[in-house]
Write a structure and sequence with these properties.
Blueprint lengths: L4 E9 L3 H12 L4 E5 L5 H6 L1 H18 L14 H11 L6 H9 L2 E10 L4 E6 L4 E12 L3 E3 L7 H4 L4 H6 L6 E5 L3 H13 L2 E5 L12 H14 L2 E3 L4 E6 L7 E5 L4 E4 L1 E4 L3 E3 L33 E3 L10 H19 L16 H4 L2 E4 L4 E6 L2 H7 L3 E7 L4 H6 L6 E7 L4 E9 L6 H10 L3 H4 L12 H13 L4
Length: 486
């Protein structure tokens, strides 16, 4: 980097999926864009979360599915091939190299500065490069913050000396710990408990709350996952708070864990999956009147509401709207289109489901939990509908009753829940739990975003025998319960 000062239309801090999409969309709108990244392009998802975690989970779930198919059980007895699983994980994480991502960035005409980017006043970003240089970047139109999140580590005595696992260590580990303690009950906790138990660890889950696992989803989702984890050999403990951890003989010695109820246990590694914090402590927020370490609150065009003149945008996990990779990419696409339209003097269409509106963040956020069984959800849960005053009818169906489910797995266990808006006659929330249901999620997302009336759905005929026939059974259940005749 020979030029210490550069001017672009758009400067993006953070090259995770959300930042990459934001930069690509502004470039596609004819704007000059640069992205600043201090680690690997592709961010947490590509190297320490989505890609490596699903690579660890895929053989686990595939084996579980095969064991439920008559004629295959004997073929999949025995333990997993650990070196092969790790090799697949390494491949899917691109061996922690980002050359392909750099090539892609070049292909969409977005410049890259490798270094730590910090705001330095309105429309100003200072990047301390990995070569020891300081580069000042000025944005004519917008600065986008896409720095994501970090693991929220609790303040516990002795934790700094223990070197606990976070999602990064859990997805990149080179060996299987004999005993693994997982602190937390959310998505990362249940996925990593599923993976490492199947890989050979004796897993104990320590869940602070008593409401169960996955407590932001429908309760039956966490219940079915907890049952499956216990059946697999995981020790799941609720209402259990960790108060102290210690390694008595250095970082390679066992972890001694003390709980608030007086219980104690010993593990070889301890994973904290206790939520996420915004990665904003050292990006110069104070230079534009914001508080370092805070989430960045945005409007529905992803402008940071507390910054005057509307030049600062925040996409992805850092705005705390929907902490999922695909949703961050969606936000990057919307914000990029917004910035492009504003820069080019074009009118915005921020109507519901318009190209410049973030409607999906509130009404149609899809999520998959890659456990055995799968959990897939989109839209409202029953609790959210009650809290927001939406009048909904809740329709449940036992997926195991389907012919397609019986074909998929012997003894299939699963459940579907669909929320129907009574005032509009549309689907506003869906949750599926069961083997293979992740592939049903896009159809549910389309139903919600298209606001298709129930009368129309009778003409969407599911193929027999597939699990997608659940849609017909849900419609029949709703009709019969309401005493209607079609």
């Amino acid at each position: 980097m020979s030029d210490p000062s550069r001017v672009y239309d758009v400067v993006v801090i953070g090259a995770g999926p959300a930042g990459e999409n934001l930069a690509e969309r502004t470039s596609a709108a004819g704007l000059t864009s640069v992205i600043v990244e201090n680690e690997l392009l592709g961010g947490e998802c590509s190297f320490w979360a989505c890609e490596p975690s699903k690579a660890l989970l895929r053989p686990v779930v595939a084996r579980a599915d095969a064991r439920r198919v008559p004629g295959l059980r004997r073929s999949v007895e025995g333990s997993l091939d650990i070196p092969a699983v790790f090799a697949h994980r390494d491949k899917m994480a691109a061996y922690w190299q980002d050359a392909d991502q750099v090539d892609w960035l070049n292909s969409v005409s977005v410049d890259l500065v490798r270094g730590h980017g910090r705001l330095d006043g309105p429309r100003q970003v200072v990047a301390n490069t990995q070569d020891g240089e300081t580069v000042r970047l000025t944005a004519r139109h917008a600065v986008g913050v896409s720095t994501g999140t970090v693991t929220a580590i609790p303040d516990l005595p002795g934790l700094d000396k223990v070197r606990p696992w976070t999602n990064r260590e859990a997805t990149a580990a080179r060996r299987v710990p004999g005993r693994l303690a997982v602190v937390g009950g959310g998505v990362v906790a249940v996925e990593m408990a599923t993976a490492w138990q199947a890989l050979g660890s004796q897993v104990t889950m320590l869940v602070r709350g008593s409401r169960g696992l996955l407590n932001r989803m429908e309760p039956f989702a966490g219940e079915l996952v907890a049952d499956a984890l216990r059946d697999a050999g995981v020790d799941v403990r609720f209402a259990t708070s960790v108060t102290e951890v210690a390694r008595e003989d250095g970082v390679d010695s066992p972890v001694h864990i003390t709980m608030a109820n007086g219980d104690s246990m010993v593990a070889d590694e301890i994973l904290f999956a206790t939520g996420r914090s915004p990665h904003t402590a050292d990006i110069g927020l104070e230079t534009v009147g914001l508080v370092p370490g805070d989430w960045l609150t945005v409007d529905d065009t992803y402008r940071v509401t507390a910054v005057a003149d509307g030049w600062l945008y925040a996409v992805g996990d850092v705005n705390h709207r929907a902490l999922m990779t695909h949703q961050g990419k969606y936000q990057g696409r919307i914000a990029g289109a917004v910035i492009g339209a504003r820069a080019n003097g074009e009118p915005l269409d921020d109507s519901r489901w318009g190209p410049h509106a973030a409607t999906a963040d509130s009404d149609a956020v899809p999520q998959v939990v890659f456990t055995d069984p799968d959990v897939a959800s989109v839209g409202l849960t029953t609790q959210e509908a009650e809290r927001t005053g939406r009048r909904v009818d809740v329709v449940d169906y036992d997926i195991g009753r389907l012919a397609g489910a019986a074909q998929y797995a012997d003894g299939y266990r699963g459940k579907a829940r669909v929320l129907i808006d009574l005032d509009r006659g549309t689907v506003v929330g869906v949750t599926f739990v069961g083997p293979g249901v992740q592939e049903l999620l896009y159809s549910a997302t389309v139903l919600i975003t298209s606001e298709a009336p129930l009368e129309r759905l009778w003409h969407a005929v599911p193929a027999f025998p597939t699990i997608s026939e659940v849609w017909l059974r849900i419609l029949e259940t709703y009709r019969d319960r309401a005493g209607q005749v079609e």
